[in-house]
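Box 3.1 A note on notation
Throughout this textbook, protein chains are presented in two layers. The first layer is the amino acid sequence; the second is a token string describing backbone geometry. Keep the layers aligned when reading.
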Amino acid sequence: MSAEPKSALEALKTELLTAVGEATDLAALEEVRVSALGKKGRITGLMADMRSLSPEERKERGQSMNALKDEVGAALDARKADLHKAALAARLEAERIDVTLPVRPEREGRVHPITQTIDELTAIFADMGFSVAEGPDIEDDFHNFTALNFPPGHPARDMHDTFYLPDRPSDGSRMLLRTHTSPVQVRSLLADKAPIRVIIPGRTYRSDYDMTHTPMFHQVEGLVVDEKTSMANLRGCLIEFCRAFFDVDDLPLRFRPSFFPFTEPSAEVDIGCLRRGGELKIGNFGDWLEILGCGMVHPNVLENCGIDSTKYQGFAFGMGIERIAMLKYGIPDLRTFFEADLRWLKHYGFVPLDVPSLAQGLNR
């Protein structure tokens, strides 16, 4: 290749790299890219002119052109990243909010009913000596099913009920989005052993969506394991909680036999209510409404967690946080909890800094 084409390519490279460096915004940089690498760009045009060259010249010129194209392309990418970074910094500077300014009355925030309800039930159970335990949203089969005495063919393991993740660990077990907060019971027993007294509020996931079901929702579970716990202790604990939460001193509770894989005996709990004219009122009115499930911890669950079931026993319970919030605050549709409607939040939300407590009131 003669010295003239080489010098022309060097001059073109210098010109294009200078233009890339001088681009002040993304629009100007895009113009440089199109003028260099577009269908009618200068580098594209030079590559099209290679058809008249001999094979040896075409090979040598092609190598030089590809090197020029790669270098200009890399410069364009680097400059684009710099401009993106500068644009983001400018936007952050322009949209900066002084968090020390007082709240504007017309924009006063509200505490979401889910957060309020979690704070309320935490205050009640804390007064009974419960601590709060947490765990991961992504679980394995052992913690979510096997350790909780779910047999291999249990319907809860089906794909239409459970969100399974595509990746599998090296041992071949399937990862999933937890279908209940019970795996934290297993983790608590494995980590802390007995005696233990915890509540477990958190997100859970199931494949369902209608007025009373959403793919993501919140549950709270309670677990007590020691040497003397009985069904009577469970009953007293839940009566105390329901009456404090709904603020009804004579609220009746009814325990009906049921079945759960992880408790034996198991029960579903109803609270007193009144249904009239399409409205529901909680209280001692002669009618009943199912509110939660509970039971004595199954010996298999204790043994799976390394707890001697001949020495220790315990009780567990669980309920939907959205469900009890809907009942207490008259919210008709579960889906509205997650629609981020500020009008809804202003209506059903709570004033910030009014922290629920049994001494000052749960929902002042």
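The first strand starts at residue 131 and ends at 132. Strands lie at 131-132, 138-140, 175-177, 196-205, 216-226, 253-260, 263-276, 279-282, 287-297, 313-320.
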